[in-house]
Amino acid sequence: MEQWQTLSEGPFFRSARLDCALARTRGALLCRKDGEKLLALPYAPDAPFPLAELFCFARVQEISGRAYVVYRLDPQNSPIF
Questions:
Q1: Cα–Cα distances in Å, from 3 out to 30, 32, 40, 67?
Q2: Furthest CA-CA distance within the chain
Q3: Residue 47 gets which letter from DSSP?
Q4: Quick one: how many helices (H) and strands (E) in the chain?
Q5: CA dihedral in degrees (4, 7, 8, 14; nearest 10)?
Q6: Closest by CA position to 31, among listed 59, 63, 57
Q7: Where would you tag: which of 12, 33, 38, 72 has the fewest CB atoms within 10 A of its CB?
Q8: Is the Cβ–Cβ distance between 10 and 28 less than 8 Å?
Q9: What pLDDT is stored for residue 74 in this prediction?
Q10: Closest Cα to residue 8, out of 42, 34, 39, 52?
Q11: Strands, sheet with 66-73, edge to edge from the N-terminal-most edge strand
Q12: Could you tell me the pLDDT band of residue 66, with boundaries at 50, 70 and 90?
């Protein structure tokens, strides 16, 4: 079972642009799993897509009954296909 935690504030990505977009998102979750990180951002079909710059790396997943966009990241917080 995945253990999700609230993402702490502050720089996360190596890109200031992505960090700025992430800072505008509320309710981000983080999970560490098998040497990777999973970043989950709340998703609503009628709202802007979270981190649209990375949409091709995203998958929609339910976590605790809510829809999230989930990104797989390497140890340096770069997206993994």
A1: 8, 8, 12, 16
A2: 33
A3: S
A4: 1, 5
A5: 130
A6: 63
A7: 33
A8: no
A9: 93
A10: 39
A11: 5-6, 29-33, 36-42, 66-73, 58-63
A12: very high
What pLDDT is recorded for position 1?
61
Q: Pick from 30, 47, 48: which is nearest to 39 by CA? A: 30
How would you class 43 by CB atoms within 10 Å of its CB: exposed for 0-12, middle for 13-18, buried for 19 or more? middle
Output the six-digit token pair for 39: 């970043």
Q: Which residue has the tokens 């993402």?
A: 7
What count of other Cβ atoms lies within 10 Å of the Cβ of residue 40?
22
Buried b (16+ CB within 10 A) or exposed e, 44-66: eeeeeebbeebeebbeeeeeeee
What single DSSP character describes residue 57? G
- DSSP reduced 3-state for 55: helix
Written as six digits, the tokens of 14 are: 């190596």
